């Protein structure tokens, strides 16, 4: 065996010319326990499920808000597109009907007081948006 060559079980740093087994962050002896990486599969899966649930909850909330906004838009299109010959007052309740000619019209007459085809009851908000009630 050569003078320069050390056995495999001896930890020798050739750059510094010292034995540095005690300075290593891991065990270097032959009888040392095997170095294994921890199994984090279950940790990943658990957290993936949590994150997916959170994202789905946020998506469902956004979808509900979007659906409400689309409904509000469609209601406003319907009522503003209806026929009426008066200026609606903010906060008052109005009823939307479908006429025999297929055109919607707005009225102050309640559905119980007439026999027209009732569509819905709406109130004009201070933002000039029609809200179905």
Descriptive report:
By secondary structure, this protein is of the alpha+beta class. The protein has 1 helix and 6 strands, in the order ββαββββ. It has one helix at 41-80, and strands at 12-13, 18-19, 93-98, 104-107, 117-124, 130-132. A hairpin with a 4-residue loop joins strand 1 (12-13) and strand 2. The protein starts with 11 loop residues before the first strand and ends with a strand. 6% of the residues are buried.
Taking pLDDT < 50 over at least 5 consecutive residues as the criterion, the unreliable ranges are none
Mean pLDDT: 90
* Main sheet summary: 4 strands, antiparallel
β-strand amount: 15-25%
H/E order of the elements? EEHEEEE
Question: What is the approximate shape?
Answer: rod-shaped
Output the radius of gyration: 39 Å
- Annotation, overall tally of beta strands: 6
For the record, give the distance between the C-alpha atoms at the N and C termini, rounded to a whole number.
96 Å
Protein structure class: alpha+beta
Read across the widest sheet, the strand sequence of neighbours is 4-3-5-6
Count of helical stretches: 1
Helix content: 25-40%
Short description:
This protein is an alpha+beta fold and 133 residues long. It is built from 1 helix and 6 strands, in the order ββαββββ. The model has no long low-confidence stretch (mean pLDDT 90).
How are the elements arranged and paired?
Elements: E1 12-13, E2 18-19, H1 41-80, E3 93-98, E4 104-107, E5 117-124, E6 130-132
Antiparallel strand pairs: 1-2, 3-4, 3-5, 5-6
Top keywords for this entry?
alpha+beta; four-stranded antiparallel beta sheet; two-stranded antiparallel sheet; 1 helix; 6 strands; rod-shaped
